[in-house]
């Protein structure tokens, strides 16, 4: 791999579940099929592959584009989208039903595919094809690449694991059409951040720009804001933002103003997960 560009970075995938009836199916596919498939593909150039289960969606979380299943994190040594990595002896098992379970594709589109209508992506690397999904009636597949390390440390530097439990609100935002990146960044730093920075309930704020050049991700910025619990999140993210001025580019009436699941995806997770798959995965062993 000496001729590959060494480019340490991490990525975040926001995995929603369209309805609770799909959760058992999606969880089974993730752990029974997808984890070993993925490890066999990228183990040589990935140093961390983890699933962080979502905490229950907080009140009004839907308008924040809340991913109700999990946050998937990878640490990469080279770009996963290098074309030389495209030749695979065994392709990923990625049935289109997964896109329905995750909310990326409406059920009607799946039925049309089964009837020979619409896109027929069952052959080839459907895992990578899924990342391009932006179908009418579904939510785009948000796969954001970031620098390996946070770029800005805004609040809470020096916090340790012994300082208490963390309710980590992780989200990405993409400035909509009609809002330049410069205008969006100005709003982020001058209108949004001060509310969270000044709130005593907020213990930590970190942020990085999304590496949009890797996969043409629609999102511009990734952020983590930490709280002690769900109630603290609600007090700041919902109650303290009620009187925010609505920007000209707003896609909804209330904060966060972005279109849920399209221009904002978010999730609340813990620090730790047993699904650190490269270290902890030992196969799909069912309950007896």
What does this structure look like?
It is built from eight helices and nine strands. By secondary structure, it is α+β, with helices and mostly antiparallel strands. The strands form two sheets. A five-stranded antiparallel β-sheet has the order 5-7-8-6-9. The longest helix is centred in the first third of the chain and has 20 residues, at 23-42. The radius of gyration is 19 Å and the shape is globular. Residues 120-124 have low confidence and may be disordered.
Summarize the structure.
The chain is of the alpha+beta class. Helices cover 26% and strands 20% of the residues.
Helical amount: 25-40%
Indicate the structural class.
alpha+beta
Count the E strands.
9
How are the strands of the largest sheet arranged?
5-7-8-6-9
Helix and strand sequence: EHEEHHHEEEHEHEHEH
* Gyration radius, rounded: 19 Å
Number of helices: 8
Q: Can you summarize the main beta sheet?
A: 5 strands, antiparallel
Q: What best-fitting shape do the alpha-carbon axes yield?
A: globular
Averaged pLDDT, please?
93
Uncertain residue ranges: 120-124
Terminal Cα span: 44 Å
**Strand percentage, roughly?**
15-25%
């Amino acid at each position: 791999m000496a001729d590959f560009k060494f480019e340490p970075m991490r990525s975040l995938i926001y995995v929603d579940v369209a309805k609770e009836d799909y959760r058992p199916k999606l969880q089974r596919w993730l752990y029974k099929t997808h984890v070993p498939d993925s490890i066999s593909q990228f183990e040589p150039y990935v140093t961390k592959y983890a699933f962080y289960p979502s905490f229950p969606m907080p009140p009004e979380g839907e308008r924040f584009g809340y991913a109700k299943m999990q946050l998937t994190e990878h640490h990469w040594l080279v770009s996963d989208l290098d074309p030389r990595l495209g030749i695979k002896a065994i392709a990923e098992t990625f049935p289109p039903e997964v896109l329905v379970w995750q909310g990326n594709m409406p059920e009607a589109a799946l039925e049309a595919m089964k009837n020979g209508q619409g896109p027929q992506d069952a052959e080839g690397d459907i895992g990578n094809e899924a990342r391009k999904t932006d179908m009418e009636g579904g939510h785009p597949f948000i796969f954001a690449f970031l620098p390996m390390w946070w770029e800005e440390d805004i609040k809470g530097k020096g916090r340790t694991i012994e300082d208490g439990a963390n309710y980590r609100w992780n989200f990405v935002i993409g400035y909509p059409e009609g809002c330049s990146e410069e205008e969006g960044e100005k709003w982020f730093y001058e209108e949004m951040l001060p509310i969270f920075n000044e709130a005593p309930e907020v213990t930590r704020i970190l942020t990085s720009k999304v590496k949009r050049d890797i996969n043409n991700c629609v999102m511009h910025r990734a952020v983590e804001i930490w709280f002690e619990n769900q109630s603290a999140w609600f007090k700041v993210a919902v109650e303290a933002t009620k009187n925010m001025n609505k920007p000209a580019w707003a896609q909804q009436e209330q904060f966060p103003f972005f279109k849920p699941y399209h221009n904002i995806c978010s999730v609340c997770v813990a620090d730790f997960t047993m699904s650190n798959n490269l270290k902890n995965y030992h196969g799909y062993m069912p309950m007896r």
